[in-house]
Amino acid sequence: MTTPSFLRPLLLALALSAAVAGCATTGPRSTAAVAPYSDKTELTGRLTINFSRDGKKESMTGKYDWQQDKDNVNVSLTAPLGQMIAVIKVTPHSATLTQGDKAPPQTAPNVDALTQKALGWTLPVSGLRYWLQGYATDSDGKPFTASPANDTVITRDGWKLEYVDWQDEKAAVPKPKLIYATRIALGQAVDDMNIRIFIDAPDQ
């Protein structure tokens, strides 16, 4: 159907208005960086882990309670209905992981290797200590500080981090809300290991 000639200028004006409005609402992302790193912090949230075990793709969804100070990290993981998945305690000398009331605690020098052995998937606790606050060390050994405009990095220990969402992207000091962490090998994503980390707002 042909548009009548007298309507064409009106339709063109409407299209241009819509285009201008779209540009006005998207705009450049904020370059404001996250707050200075703090040794002491407490966070809660949810995570989903996709991994492979014995050739089968599996996933785990749960809640976490994260507490850290200068020397120690304590992480509690629970299933959506409240059952305990694991309690992880990290000190400068060792890491201990406990599953359920009947299983004895397991201890190892390296917490990431310990989670892989005990759970069948790696929870990169040593990296999360920094990632949750928007900090990392990139593949060249340089410090990375996240902002809405600077939201992706490949870390020195082989993870691709994407800061997908923020508590308030326009805040003077934005805080991460959703992080994707994907295991990287030789520059390629490893399909059987990725984590989505949702961080609760500070007042929750």
Automatic annotation (TrEMBL):
Alphabetically ordered keywords of this record: Cell outer membrane, Chaperone, Lipoprotein, Membrane, Palmitate, Protein transport, Signal, Transport
One Pfam family per UniProt: LolB
Subcellular compartments: Cell outer membrane
Lineage, broadest ranks: Bacteria, Pseudomonadati, Pseudomonadota, Betaproteobacteria, Burkholderiales
Entries under InterPro entries matching the protein: LolA/LolB/LppX, OM_lipoprot_LolB
Signal peptide start-end: 1-21
Assembly with partners or alone: Monomer.
Stated name of the protein: Outer-membrane lipoprotein LolB
Listed Gene3D superfamilies: Lipoprotein localisation LolA/LolB/LppX (2.50.20.10)
Protein origin, superkingdom: Bacteria
Family membership noted in the UniProt record: Belongs to the LolB family.
Membrane topology term: Lipid-anchor
